[in-house]
Write a structure and sequence with these properties.
Layout (H helix, E strand, L loop, with lengths): L7 E5 L2 H10 L1 H5 L1 E4 L8 H17 L4 H7 L2 E5 L35 H14 L5 E7 L2 E4 L12 E6 L3 H4 L3 E5 L7 E6 L3 H7 L4 E12 H10 L2 E2 L4 E2 L26 H4 L3 E5 L4 E4 L3 H12 L5 H4 L10 E8 L11 E8 L3 E2 L4 E4 L8 E2 L4 E7 L4 E7 L14 E2 L2 E2 H7 L4 H4 L13 E4 L4 H8 L7 H9 L2 E2 L1 H7 L2 H21 L11 H9 L18 H16 L5 H21 L14 E6 L1 E6 L8 H5 L2 E9 L5 E8 L4 E5 L4 E5 L2 H4 L10 H9 L4 H4 L6 H8 L2 E8 L9 H16 L6 H14 L7 H7 L3 E5 L9 E5 L12 E5 L6 H13 L3 H22 L3 H18 L6 H9 L4 E6 L7 E6 L2 H13 L7 E2 L2 E3 L5 E4 L1
Helix pairs in contact: 1-17, 18-19, 19-20, 20-27, 23-26, 23-27, 26-27, 26-28, 30-31
């Protein structure tokens, strides 16, 4: 079976960030290797890639470089440039730009960075690649969002990923010219060609931009290492460090069917291009790029039902985070604003195209000008003030009239302040990036700050002398000497102070859309009291109350407060009430329509779930909708769930379990209502009676006693249940038994529920039992055949069923399938509690996995629809991997031993249901392999209860008939 390990994360960072990574980003430091180019050397993207690989290999201690390369894939993210056009994040690197939470998204973190948002997509692309792909190289100032399914990735030495754009958009990127009939075939690669060149070549070629993501095979890595000066025999670079070599300006120009350069070694590499359909490409190379990319990301979704009350209008090009911000803002006058890690009092006047970072706590009166940016940089003892223009390139000799700083020629800035280069002690040939322009002080006077950036500064000998006489740093020095620990400490403190403000705004902020698991850790570590409890009735979106209570429980638990469990119980109670109350508000009254000697007989198959399980579980399905692919099956020739009901003379409700040999009588409404009481037997049957109208909560209170109700019906009711499946089977037994009970009671009581109503009421019944659970079990058994079942977001989870052809399970492929009871049981209730807790808390990792799980159901549907059995096998395997990612306990050691025992003959397998035990669905490599698996496990069973069970597709689903 194929596995999907993550690629090892290798980072190229600024030297300063490398030295402080464990203090500033401990999570990243723990799961990655980080390095930087050797001092004074410009290695280029190719040499830099080779250097990262060599350094990571040496750090690993592995003897052979090639052996290390083959151990696991490597994801290299390059974020070590000087960031001249985005100065405030030069020191940490653009990978650590603090990214605002998307107002339309769930599960994002207040402390997320560009790296946090970019890496998951890259890892998903790497996992989809062929086994020959060893290294992925990605730009650190780019974010790619995949909107749809990733296309198949060809097996080639160099795989490029591209987007279709206009020539004007393409001119600032690498451009891939491809065969129009087969755009996956690269003809020529050009770096930043002009629009005219692109238009001329497009007469014969299709073109895409390179999104800065490349996949390299072992052969391609060997070639790149060699071109960078690597001696494979000595396992070292010829000159100690790599030679300067560029991926885009050199290496790629030799690739394709008609390259512009002709290096035969590079040209021998095979290439492929993967056009990304409906992908989003967001660049963070400059100040303008950052603001535009964030503006587009924030406004991706305009559906107000998904935005809630966060904002009914488009997000303006204004971003304020990790701040105390009190200045007035207007949408148009203050366009293109970025304020981060700063104190901005009400006495400031904001303009447009202002980027403000690191501003210390102050009471200044300061009026900004358009396109002026301020960056206060923490040093070891003092602070530097970096003033720059929104579009400054930080490039060019200071003596050159074309070199601009703060939106004007540098010479003009000097002249306006009565200064000269000679007076400042700066050589005219000095590049702007290395010029000592930025004053370092203990504190700043707002008049001096204004003097630094003003388009028409007031003449001031005081500020002129201060600028000349104080220590000054260059932009390069600020990047190398910034105290990043101080930056992070202040940012974290400001972030914590913003938490109660956000929480108090409830529906009007993104607070309850955040990853509340991560947010609870921030809140628990702050001095703030929890905000006022949110009442369900006061909320337009009542689901926020669920998140509110679970968030409180998480904070209390982290603070060691014993009351945390009560808040968690409240969250589950609110969920239960939201689902169950609709049935209390629409009461039903059963009226017995049976003849004295009639019996109602219900029988139902069980379900095997192949993909999508967990996406049906509230509250995930209520907020996102669910998508599940499963099949109804009979076991050993029979529907294994059966329920019988008859009318009795005695005015009681009798419950009998044939398989357990137990009998119990319910004599009053209090007995029926005991379905959620600890130690109460037959809880499922009690709840089924209740929701079927045998309790005042669900019949409108029209009877004083159960005796009175049964007398009006003409007698009592006796039900007998048979579940011919072991407990904890993973086949959805309890939910399907509940659905069968409801089907039988509906028939007996003349309620006339169809299969959809039965499935929906079963979901409510599961909530009444406090066991949680979703809708896929009952839908899988009640509805026949193999089907994709979807629901849309909302409290009413209406199953939309799309049936599929069942020939996989009735034709030759069936010989490869095995259903094996492992003899190991695990109660789903325990698993549900942990998973659902993570859903309540919008856990980013859990939500990401659940999204992938739901998508797997769609993939499985498509595979069956295409009659592609191998794709179906792959999807089952993928589902198993995703279930294990969601819950590590899904695959206990005893189950893994079974899988290992038959691994050579196994193409795919997954435990059914929540996992941990129960039934194991296996697909062998072929029919003969299936025979061998059966023989091996029958000869060497793992325990006394393990056994194979025959299964067959059910064409009927739930059946209810009368004698």
């Amino acid at each position: 079976m194929k596995s999907y390990p993550s690629f090892d994360l290798l980072l190229s960072l600024p030297p300063n960030m490398c030295g402080q990574l464990s203090d500033c980003e401990p999570g990243v430091a723990a799961r990655s290797f980080a390095t930087f180019d050797p001092p004074g050397r410009q290695l280029g993207s190719g040499g830099g890639t080779a250097y990262v690989l060599e350094q990571a290999w040496r750090e690993s201690g592995t003897e052979s470089f090639s052996g290390w390369l083959m151990e696991n894939g490597k994801l290299i993210m390059h974020g070590g440039g000087e960031s001249r056009r985005l100065p405030p994040y030069a020191a940490p690197g653009k990978l650590f730009i603090p990214m605002p939470v998307y107002r339309w998204a769930l599960g994002q973190r207040l402390d997320q960075t560009l790296l946090d948002l970019a890496e998951p997509t890259l890892q998903s692309m790497a996992k989809a690649a062929s086994a020959n792909a060893r290294v992925m190289v990605a730009s650190g100032d780019v974010l790619v969002r995949l909107e749809g399914e990733l296309p198949p990735i060809p097996d080639a030495d160099v795989v490029f990923f591209g987007l279709w754009v206009t020539p004007e958009e393409a001119q600032n990127f690498g451009v891939m010219f491809c065969d129009p009939a087969t755009p996956e075939k690269l003809v020529t690669f050009l770096q930043k060609p002009t629009p005219d060149t692109i238009r001329a070549k497009s007469r014969d070629s299709a073109f895409l931009i390179d999104v800065g993501i490349w996949l390299l095979s072992e052969r391609a890595v060997d070639c790149l290492m060699k071109k960078s000066g690597w001696d494979a025999q000595k396992q070292a670079f010829a000159h100690g460090v790599p030679d300067t070599y560029d991926l885009y300006g050199s290496w790629a120009l030799n690739l394709g069917a008609d390259p512009v350069e002709n290096d035969p070694e590079v040209g021998a590499l095979t290439t492929a291009v993967v056009p990304l359909p409906d992908a989003g490409f967001y660049h963070f190379g400059t100040c303008g790029d950052m603001l535009q990319s964030l503006y587009e990301l924030q406004n991706l979704v305009s559906d107000q039902t998904k935005l809630g009350a966060v904002s009914m209008l488009a997000q303006p090009r204004q971003f304020v985070q990790n701040c105390v911000f009190e200045a007035p803002l207007r949408r148009q006058a203050n366009d293109s604003l970025w304020v981060e890690n700063s104190h901005i009092p009400a006495t400031w006047k904001i303009a447009s195209e202002n980027i403000l970072t690191g501003v210390p706590k102050n009471e200044w009166t300061l009026e900004l000008e358009d396109s002026v940016c301020l960056d206060f940089v923490d040093l070891e003892a003092k602070t530097a003030l970096r003033v720059y223009g929104y579009s400054d390139a930080f490039r060019g000799e200071l003596g050159n009239p074309a070199t601009k700083w703060i939106n004007r020629p540098f010479g003009r800035w000097l002249e306006q302040r009565g200064l000269s280069l000679d007076e400042a002690g700066i050589d005219p040939s000095t590049d702007l990036q290395v010029a000592p322009l930025f004053p370092v002080l203990d504190a700043f006077d707002p008049a001096f700050v204004k003097w630094m950036f003003a388009a028409e500064p007031e003449a001031s000998d005081q500020w002129k002398r201060l600028w000349l006489e104080t220590e000054r740093k260059s932009a390069r020095q600020l990047g190398q000497q910034a105290n990043l620990r101080k930056m992070y400490e202040r940012r974290n403190a400001l972030r914590k102070d913003a938490l109660p403000v956000m929480a108090n705004h409830a529906e009007r902020s993104v607070f309850y859309k955040l990853d509340l698991e991560a947010t609870s850790a921030l809140y628990a570590d702050s001095p703030h009291e929890l905000p006022a409890l949110l009442e369900v009735e006061s909320l337009r979106n009542p689901l926020i109350a669920l998140h509110d209570r679970m968030f409180r429980a998480a904070v209390r638990r982290r603070r060691g407060d014993d009351q945390w469990a009560l808040r968690e119980t409240e969250a589950f109670r609110v969920l239960r009430d939201l689902i169950v109350d609709r049935y209390k508000q629409n009461p039903v009254e059963p009226r017995c329509t049976l003849l004295a000697d009639q019996i109602v007989w219900g029988r139902c198959p069980v379900r095997l779930d192949f993909a999508g399980g967990w996406s049906d579980t509230p509250p995930y399905s209520l907020e996102h909708g669910g998508s599940v692919l499963n099949i109804a099956v009979e076991l050993n020739g029979q529907p294994p769930i059966q329920v019988f009901a008859r009318r009795t003379e005695e005015l009681v409700l009798s419950i009998r379990s044939i398989d357990l040999g137990l009998v119990e009588q319910l004599n009053g409404y209090e007995d029926v209502r005991a379905y959620d009481k600890l130690g109460s037997g037959f809880a499922l049957a009690r709840a089924a009676f209740a929701i079927s109208g045998f309790h005042p909560d669900f019949n409108g209170g029209i009877y004083e006693t159960l005796d009175e109700q049964l007398a009006a019906m003409g007698g009592g009711v006796e039900i007998s249940m048979l579940a011919a499946i072991p407990k904890g089977s993973g086949l959805g037994t309890s939910s399907i038994l509940a659905a069968t009970l409801l089907g039988v009671l509906s028939d007996l009581g003349g309620l006339k529920w169809d299969k959809v109503e039965i499935a929906q009421r079963t979901l409510a019944l599961e909530q009444m039992l406090t066991s949680g659970g979703g809708w896929q079990d009952q839908v899988g058994g009640v509805f026949p055949g193999i089907k994709l079942v979807r629901t849309v977001p909302g409290l009413e989870q209406l199953p939309i069923v799309r049936w599929l052809p069942g020939h996989f399970f009735q034709g030759p492929a069936k010989a490869r399938m095995l259903l094996y009871y492992t003899g190991i049981t695990r109660v789903a209730h325990d698993i549900l509690g942990e998973i659902v807790r993570g859903i309540f808390l919008n856990s980013g990792s859990r939500l990401e996995t659940l999204h992938d799980i739901a998508r797997a159901a769609e993939f499985c549907h498509d595979a069956i629809q295409r009659d592609d059995f191998e794709a179906f096998v792959e999807t089952v395997n993928r589902s198993w991997q995703l279930n294990r990612r969601l819950d590590s306990g899904t695959n206990p050691a005893a189950v893994q031993e079974i899988l290992d025992f038959v691994a050579d003959d196994l193409a795919a397998a997954k435990l059914l249901g929540a996992g941990g035990g129960g039934y194991l669905f296996m697909i062998a490599n072929d029919a003969d392999a299936a025979i061998r698996i059966r023989e091996q496990l029958e000869t060497n069973p793992p325990n006394a209860g393990a056994r194979f069970v025959e299964f067959a597709l059910s064409e009927t689903g739930l059946q209810v008939t009368r004698s």
